[in-house]
Design a protein that fits this description.
Blueprint: E1 3-6, H1 10-21, E2 27-29, E3 41-46, H2 56-64, E4 72-80, E5 85-98, H3 105-110, E6 117-118, H4 125-131, E7 134-137, H5 143-147, E8 151-165, E9 172-176, E10 186-191, E11 196-204, H6 237-253, E12 258-273, E13 277-278, E14 281-283, H7 299-313, H8 319-340, H9 345-355, H10 358-365, H11 370-378
Parallel strand pairs: 1-2, 1-7, 2-6, 4-9, 7-14
Antiparallel strand pairs: 3-5, 4-5, 8-11, 8-12, 9-10, 10-11, 13-14
Helix pairs in contact: 1-7, 7-8, 8-11
Pfam family, one: NAD_binding_8
Protein name: NAD(P)-binding protein
InterPro entries: FAD/NAD-bd_sf, Geranylgeranyl_reductase
């Protein structure tokens, strides 16, 4: 068996680690010059989304021999709406660094792989099909899956973020649900250390086919995603949202913003594969659809798709069976995302008032499937393609 892995991110490297443990050395191809994305960002592994698994890092190490060190064990999530604040306390999950940083999860996984990574690779998928018995597509985006007619794009996302310097507690992360700064989306602050953090806004781009509206609300329109009062000569909407967020950040965090290493993403497709495997090709990570639509992070599922693709290659599991579970979680997350797009700022205020205190803390302590339960409650009120 000759296995090629296209992509040296979370899913591709996790696949390689498992294959090597059982004596198969894959060929790993990465089109960039080093492990990690184009820039450094912070992300969180929010364990409320992975029930009944309550400790994902313990799960990875004990069950699959994959070892990861977080930036911090998160003890508090602070969520702001336009007029409310809600503090969630408990075991929230873990924060991590991603991208071109020596302690990023990408770099940590690369140090656990014995096979050389062929950087700056120009090898095409079609060429690898002729040379290798199996190809694992772990390219970090859906480009190849789309070309192979194996990907459903549900929406596209615009993001803008930066490294911000100040005074932070790495065990506390913050989020903002405010349509004035991230329409139909959210903003967040995730510390790298006690001196640096990642801050970003993320929101869906205007849909080609807007989702059905909740009873009593007007249907969303492209204009609903843009700030009011803009003219052709005005700044781009993302810059307006970003400026508003920085003002809001300084007010809520209580310190001025000191911005470094700004980055932008536009038109990033969020969706899922129809089939996790076609012939001798496996789709893993973001190429499979590991990004969860609700909050946008997907490290947990990215790693697991790589792991279970490897077990399938080894004859030790059925990737399609495992992938069906991940797709179920994706669809549940999509239901919550669609419902969130209809919530006004007044609605976010009411939601945080309801969750503040014991109700919110219970959500993070219970082993119940909170994501699935929320999706079942919301599904009758929305329409999905």
């Amino acid at each position: 068996m000759k296995v090629a892995i296209m992509g040296a991110g979370l899913s591709g490297l996790s696949c390689a680690i498992v294959l090597e443990r059982y004596g198969i050395e894959p060929a790993i191809f990465e089109d960039r010059g080093q492990v990690g994305d184009r820039f450094v960002t912070g992300e969180i592994d929010m364990e409320i989304l992975h029930r009944p698994v309550m400790d994902t890092l313990r799960f990875f190490s004990k069950e699959h021999g994959i070892y990861l060190q977080p930036v911090a064990n998160l003890a508090k999530l602070v969520v702001f709406s336009e007029n409310q604040r809600c503090d969630f306390n408990g075991h929230i999950g873990f924060s991590c660094t991603r991208g071109r940083h020596p302690q990023s999860w990408d770099a940590q996984l690369a140090r656990q792989v014995r096979a050389p990574i062929q950087f700056n690779s120009k090898r095409a998928y079609q060429d690898l099909l002729q040379e290798f018995t199996h190809v694992v597509l772990a390219t970090g985006d859906s480009e190849y899956a789309v070309k192979l007619k194996n990907f459903r794009i549900d929406f596209r996302v615009t993001m803008k973020g930066a490294t911000i310097r100040g005074r932070f507690d790495p065990q506390i992360v913050c989020a903002w649900l405010d349509n004035r700064i991230a329409p139909k989306g959210y903003a967040y602050l995730i510390p790298y250390s006690d001196e640096e953090a990642c801050c970003a806004i993320a929101y869906p781009e205007p849909p080609v086919n807007p989702p059905a509206n909740l009873p009593g609300n007007p249907p969303p329109t492209p204009q609903a995603y843009a700030p009011t009062g803009l003219t052709d000569k005005s700044p781009q909407p993302t810059d307006v949202f970003w400026s508003r967020f920085l003002t809001r950040y300084a007010h809520d965090i209580g310190q001025p913003h000191d911005i470094h290493r700004v980055w932008n993403i536009s038109g990033y497709p969020v969706g899922r594969c129809h089939y996790p495997r076609i012939g001798n090709t496996y789709f893993v990570g973001n190429c499979f659809g590991a990004v969860m639509p609700f909050l946008g992070f997907g490290q947990y599922y990215a790693i697991l798709t790589g792991v279970h693709a490897a077990y399938d290659l080894l004859g030790m599991g059925d990737y399609a069976e495992k992938a069906a579970q991940y797709l179920k979680c994706y669809e549940e997350s999509l239901v919550i995302r669609r419902a969130m797009e209809h919530v006004s700022n007044r609605g976010f205020d009411r939601l945080l008032r309801f969750l503040d205190g014991s109700v919110g803390d219970w959500l993070f302590d219970t082993p119940r499937d909170v994501l699935g339960t929320a999706a079942r409650v919301m599904r009758p009120f929305i329409s999905l393609p």
